[in-house]
Design goal:
heterodimer, A: six-stranded mixed β-sheet, elongated, B: 4 helices
Amino acid sequence: MSRPIAWNVVVGILVGPALAPAASAGIKLITLPPRERVEIQLDNPQVTLVEEERIVPLTQGVNDVVFAWANTSIDRESIQLRCLSDPDAVKVLSVSYPPGENALTWQVASPKAGSARIRISYLIGQLDKSYAYQATASPDEKQLTLWQYVQLHNRSNEEFGMAGMWAGFGERFERPIGINETKKLLSARFANVPVQKVYLADLAAHGYLDAGKRQLRVPMSYRLKNDAAHGLGLFPLMFGKARIFQDDGQGMSAFLGEDWARFTPRDDEVDLFLGVARDIVVKRTIDRREQKRVLGNLYDYYVVVKYEIENFKDQPAVLDLAESLRALRSEIGINSDRDVEWELGDQGTLGKARMDVEKTTVDRVLFRVELPPRGPDDQAVKTTHTLHVRIRNEW
Amino acid sequence: MTRTMVMVLISTGLVRVAAASSNIDLSTIPPRDGVQLTIYNSEDLTLVRETRTVTFRKGMNPLQFSWANTLIDPSSVELRFRTNSDQLEVLDTTFPHDKPQMLYWNVQSELDGDAQVEVTYFTSGISWAADYVCTSDPQEERMRFEGFVRITNQSGEDYENAQVRMVVGTINLVEKVRELAQRGLIADADREAYERGRRPISQMVDAARRDLSMELKAGMAVAESAAAPKEIVKQGLSEYFLFTVEGTETIRHTWSKRMRLFQGLQVPFRIQYRFRPQEYGPQMVRMFLLRNDRESDLGTTPLPDGIVRLYRDNGRDGLSMLVQQGIRYVPIGQEIELNLGVDPEVIHEWVKLGSRRDNFWFRRHDVEVYYSPQQGHQVEIRDTVAGWDEHQSWVERIRNYRDKPVDVEIRRRFEGDVLFCSGLAPTLYDYQSPQFAATVERGQKCDLAYDLTFRQGRNQKQNRVTLEER
């Protein structure tokens, strides 16, 4: 059912030759050309640009075109007028701003009488957008279908009628936007997106699940890569909430969890933390701490970190093991603000050769270990890894 | 409309200073023939020059000038005769004690007829500001650059059909015109110092007066053009720059008016990504760099301080808002820097890959003597570390997800005695800040690697960065 559109933004043409200044005239006859087209540009993360077109009747000579608004937060400094139908002939001579009013008057010169299509653009507040994602993973969690939504929130107190919207990527939408409405629009759907299930054991970042048993908290994430090879890569994925479901294989789905998806440029990857894995148990202990004097009060420390890992799932898994060297140094009782000078020994299973060079920094070393599934007897295979670290030149 | 500024020719005969004391006056009110505003943007100051035609009779002619509810500096009001100046003379000027916004001139006339007089004064409450609208093409190679000026009148007086001039530059004022206007005439004791301090302005006023005379000779009252935006003539004026709006404008009290100052239709620009924490904060920002010169379709005028609104043609029959920011005065020939902020498609990380220490020096217990094993010295068990070199390996990791190569420039400041070793062909911006540049191809990741050696403790001999090629 249609209803009257409440416009708080009005464009008026004063009939007759321009009065200078127009608003000082006591008796005015004004024509009010309606909007012919509205485009809402949502591509700037901070501000929203509205472009509206109207067909205005111009007389030959100078015309006063009045733009007025009420109860809506238009940035008056940003308002521009351009003539689309005859930009070379129809010129804006000047703009006058009456006192105490949300209005302005353009003095527009036209070489002949007739209609002109003009476009008025301005920044408006309280008209913003957000992004949301929904995904349904396949039963084997190898791939998922991803839906991306743009949510337009119109609290600008202006009704735009049928308006085009563009978020800076993807397709343009055309929908009516009412006052105080939120519009959720499906902007993209990606099917068969490969997903990698990632487990992470990182004491410094995620702490213990059971400190007494030295059992680490192991978050599980879905990792998506925003490129063509992984079914995405058409445009950057914007920041927004992602809700992940899983197809239960019986025509229904179960909610796995949700996370904020960070802005992900093309070719970059995003991890969506869904929940804590309870079937992958990682116990971490420091097996050895030994200090050796180098010279004077200068010492080296030899530390062995042991990880006992069990995968109670019936599927193999890949676990990222991260160790913060700074936290490790603190853990063995050395308090220092200096960088940790460290090197890995080759006596352990986690040596230089297994280090993820791309993601290792001066403070954090990362390994990737593969975990076998539980056996046919339902018993998990315990995998033990050791990390030999020499912390050098401390005093 | 309320006219608050009035000039009155008093016709009570033998009235001199005591004119106001007469109980019965007959007055004529000569209207303005023309008015010119010269508005300064660095101070709340406008020089108003108005001309009126006054009919004099032979003998003494008292003239009253009043400016109720305006912001005029009374000490600045002057009367000159534009015609018949050899027959007219101001004998004295009186500021009556009981009428704060009024003065009288006693004019001795040998003329019996009309003469054109000019009244000049300073007022506050009229201001102007520049702003700019830039629209880049979809390829981000050229832009349309439009400059505007906006005049705002809060002076208490309507100025109709005024010639408007605007001055860009920073002038010196020893007292604010608004304060003078509100205080009234300054004390006699202060007058001399005040006048002395105002000399630079007086000189400017004289210069402006000469300019005006030339314009008048050239025919000042240009009819308003109805077909095109008014031309704004730009010219240098000592350390300042003067914009003169073609024809006349009406600017009423509390209104403001915006006009186009200039436009460049095809202004080339380049894009550079800069990491300069001292200037732009701790992030890599995207810059549009253009030059205010004729080669760039600009350069007709310095750009006064103002807000820039930068849009891009989004290639879909619409605009994208890129940024709005203030710019400071840009002289002709200087580069204009527009900071678009962080670009989420060009990602910059500063990653420390390694750290190690060597070149240790030890201090002997309780003795001011230092030993180094590298020098073959024997170090004892109670010796303590007193100096060392700390070596750090860093990369500036840049990932370019845009569909074009990007130019990046990185400038960092390091405290201490630092050796900067790299193959990046760095230069020193200052004694603590190496800088270097690179191009990152589209869709590529680039690691700009360098090593830093910080000489610590007693090893530190300097507080500066030295460069070493790798």
